[in-house]
């Protein structure tokens, strides 16, 4: 006999089918209800921001260090002169950086210089025969009536007024005022400055917002932009802050697609821009305020490319395991114009994609292989600035022990080793062990080196850039 089939009475079968249909209908209605609920939530609602965070952490979301985007074809070619608009943010107190920035950059088309003062006829800058005036985007907001009568009495508004009057008089006190209040005025330039740039360059595929001490590695940036469709809404940068308000660090450069900027400044959101400019009187960080504006139109910081952005100068850039082989698109912190010129002279004419580990060789650091035979560098430091991620040991007795401790550092999250560089302070008897390494500089009384086995392993794993 063959297997017996389970027989249901027709009435019972119909009831089960009807019940299944009801459950399916309820499931569909619940899904539609949830979707409608989310659609009705404001873009800056806590629940929506929490969902964005959970989605970034989910297993299906590619992680920045995986560099999966590199496998995409360069489907969207760009020409820097025609397709990329650069917004350089400066100020009266830092205007001495502008000439060095213009010298360091290789090739640009349209550049908009924004600040808290304006150059006069005959004082404008130039690049490749193009005249580049400095636009006072802070003063423009007062002239255009963005602020109310009450706003004009705000301390920051009064400070700007006093500085502007001193500039007009040619008073030397203007420079000291700019240094004292420049940070506060800087927060007022992001949204207003980007708006001016968009009005002047409405058809650019991409907009880069940079500080006057930020250097863009153009071939690395090209590698990224040619794999992204500028008709999609992209707001990309070096993430700072928490899940409730993650924003792109302005100094590391902020990348925005035409579609994103077009939406931000569309007439439908004029009220949002007005409100954001009003809030700039009290905001500390303008890059955070820009992120709030983007969130207000439903555009959130894309963190998929975060490992490309850098907030330091080349010799003190943190080369970490999660970005060892990744391209690097920016350097920051060139407060001294000569530092900017040096970076430009070093990288401008290389004509290739620069990875984080490439910084090591390009800046003249010792070959990684030499650390196997000569693991200690006297009067040097390969760690740099210390923070909570650096392990400090006071129970070790020598540079040899410090080196050994770095190589032995393991953990559940670092099965292959957490420490990449170590520094022994002979005077203080302290051993510093860091999850990054820098090219570094001379440091009297210190001995420094690398976890040469781990570093060599990371370097060997780097695949050629397509």
Concise structural overview:
By secondary structure, the protein is of the alpha+beta class.
Topology (SSEs and partners):
Elements: H1 10-40, H2 46-57, H3 80-83, E1 84-89, H4 98-104, E2 110-115, E3 125-127, E4 130-132, E5 134-136, H5 137-143, H6 155-169, H7 173-186, H8 190-200, E6 206-211, E7 215-216, H9 218-225, E8 235-236, E9 239-242, E10 245-248, E11 254-257, H10 258-264, H11 270-279, H12 286-296, E12 319-320, E13 330-331, H13 337-347, H14 358-362, H15 370-373, E14 377-381, E15 391-393, H16 399-408, E16 421-425, E17 430-434, E18 436-437, E19 441-450, H17 452-460
Parallel strand pairs: 1-2, 1-6, 2-5
Antiparallel strand pairs: 3-4, 6-11, 7-13, 8-11, 9-10, 12-18, 14-19, 15-17, 16-17, 16-19
Helix pairs in contact: 4-13, 6-7, 11-12
Question: What would the keywords be for this entry?
Answer:
six-stranded mixed beta sheet, Hepatocyte Growth Factor, 17% strand, Spore Coat Polysaccharide Biosynthesis Protein SpsA, Chain A, five-stranded antiparallel beta sheet, 19 strands, alpha+beta, 466 residues, 2 domains, 17 helices
Could you walk me through the main structural features you see in this protein, from its secondary elements to its overall organization?
With 466 residues, the protein is of the alpha+beta class. It has two domains: 80-308, Spore Coat Polysaccharide Biosynthesis Protein SpsA, Chain A; 367-466, Hepatocyte Growth Factor (3-Layer(bba) Sandwich). It has helices at residues 10-40, 46-57, 80-83, 98-104, 137-143, 155-169, 173-186, 190-200, 218-225, 258-264, 270-279, 286-296, 337-347, 358-362, 370-373, 399-408, 452-460; strands at residues 84-89, 110-115, 125-127, 130-132, 134-136, 206-211, 215-216, 235-236, 239-242, 245-248, 254-257, 319-320, 330-331, 377-381, 391-393, 421-425, 430-434, 436-437, 441-450. The strands form six sheets. The protein has a six-stranded mixed sheet. It has a five-stranded antiparallel sheet with strand order 14-19-16-17-15. Helix 4 packs parallel to helix 13 (337-347). The N and C termini lie far apart (65 Å). 41% of the residues are buried. The model has no long low-confidence stretch (mean pLDDT 91).
């Amino acid at each position: 006999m063959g297997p017996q089939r389970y027989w249901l009475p027709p009435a019972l079968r119909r009831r089960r089918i009807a019940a299944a249909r009801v459950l399916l209908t309820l499931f569909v209605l619940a899904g539609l209800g949830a979707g409608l609920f989310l659609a009705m939530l404001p873009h800056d609602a806590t629940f929506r921001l929490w969902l964005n965070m959970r989605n970034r952490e989910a297993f299906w979301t590619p992680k920045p260090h995986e560099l999966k985007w590199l496998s995409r074809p360069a489907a969207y070619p760009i020409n820097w002169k025609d397709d990329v608009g650069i917004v350089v943010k400066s100020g009266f107190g830092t205007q001495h950086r502008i000439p060095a920035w213009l010298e360091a950059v290789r090739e640009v088309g349209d550049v908009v210089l924004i600040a808290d003062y304006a150059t006069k006829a005959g004082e404008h800058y130039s690049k490749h025969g193009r005249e580049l005036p400095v636009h006072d985007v802070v003063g423009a907001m007062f002239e255009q009536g963005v602020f109310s009568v009450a706003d004009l009495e705000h301390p920051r508004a009064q400070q700007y007024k006093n500085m502007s009057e001193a500039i007009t008089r040619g008073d030397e006190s203007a420079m000291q005022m700019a240094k004292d209040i420049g940070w506060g005025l800087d927060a007022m330039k992001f949204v207003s400055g980007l708006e001016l740039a968009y009005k002047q360059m409405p058809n650019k595929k991409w907009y880069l917002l940079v500080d006057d001490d930020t250097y863009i590695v153009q071939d690395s940036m090209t590698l990224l932009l040619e794999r992204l469709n500028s008709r999609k809404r992209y707001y990309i940068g070096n993430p700072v802050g928490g899940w409730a308000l993650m924003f792109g660090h302005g100094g590391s450069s902020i990348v925005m697609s035409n579609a994103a900027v077009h939406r931000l400044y569309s007439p439908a959101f004029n009220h949002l821009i007005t409100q954001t400019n009003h809030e700039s009187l009290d905001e500390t960080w303008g890059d955070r305020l820009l992120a709030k504006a983007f969130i207000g139109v439903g555009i959130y910081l894309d963190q998929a490319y975060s490992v490309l952005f850098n907030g330091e100068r080349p010799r003190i850039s943190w080369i970490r395991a999660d970005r060892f082989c990744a391209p690097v698109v920016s350097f920051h912190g060139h407060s001294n114009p000569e530092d900017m010129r040096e970076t430009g002279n070093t990288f401008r004419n290389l004509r290739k994609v620069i990875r984080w580990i490439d910084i090591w060789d390009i800046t003249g650091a010792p070959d990684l292989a030499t650390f196997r035979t000569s693991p200690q560098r006297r009067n040097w430091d390969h760690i740099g600035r210390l923070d909570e991620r650096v392990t400090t040991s006071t129970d070790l007795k020598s540079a040899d022990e410090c080196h050994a401790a770095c190589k032995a550092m393991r953990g559940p999250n670092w099965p292959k080793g957490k420490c990449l560089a170590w520094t022994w302070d002979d005077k203080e008897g302290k051993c510093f062990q860091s999850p990054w390494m820098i090219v570094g500089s001379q440091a009297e009384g210190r001995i420094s080196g690398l976890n040469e086995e781990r570093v060599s392993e990371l370097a060997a794993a780097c695949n050629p850039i397509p």
